[in-house]
Specification:
The chain is an alpha/beta fold. The protein contains 2 helices and 8 strands; from the N terminus they run E-H-E-E-E-E-H-E-E-E. The protein has one domain: 2,3-Dihydroxybiphenyl 1,2-Dioxygenase, domain 1 (Roll).
Length: 130
Amino acid sequence: MAGKLHLTEVGRVALPAADQDRALEFYVDTLGFELRVDETFAGGQMRWIEVAPAGAATAIAITPPMEGGPTAVDSGIIISTGDIDADYAALKGAGVDVDPEIARWGKPVPPMFRLRDPNGNSLTIVEPLD
C-alpha cells in the first residue's frame, strides 16, 4: 500500500432494528446505556440512534434494516461486566431473552452468556478474567 492510512478507532457498530423505538428503550432502560445521538435526516425519512455504556469509546448505532438485508444479526459484540451472575439474574428477571445459563468453560475462557435484543440481534456478555 503506497500511503499511510489514518484509522484511529472503532467508533461504532451498527445493528438493524425494524422497531428503533423499542430497541432504544431496551438499550437505555434495560441495559442502562446512555443515549448519545437520536437524530432524523433525509427530510425526516431516516433516523440515526447511537447508544453506549457510560464512558465507553465504542457506540452501537441502531439503524433501520437495509433493504433486502437481515432484520437481525449475530452481532459479534461482546460487552464486559464486573458481575456476570448479578447481571444475568437481573436481565433474566426482567424478561430479557438470555441463554438458559452462563457458560463456564474455565480458563482461559471467561464466563459468558448471550442475550437477544427485542429485534433479535444477539450480543455476548462476558466477565473478563484477571
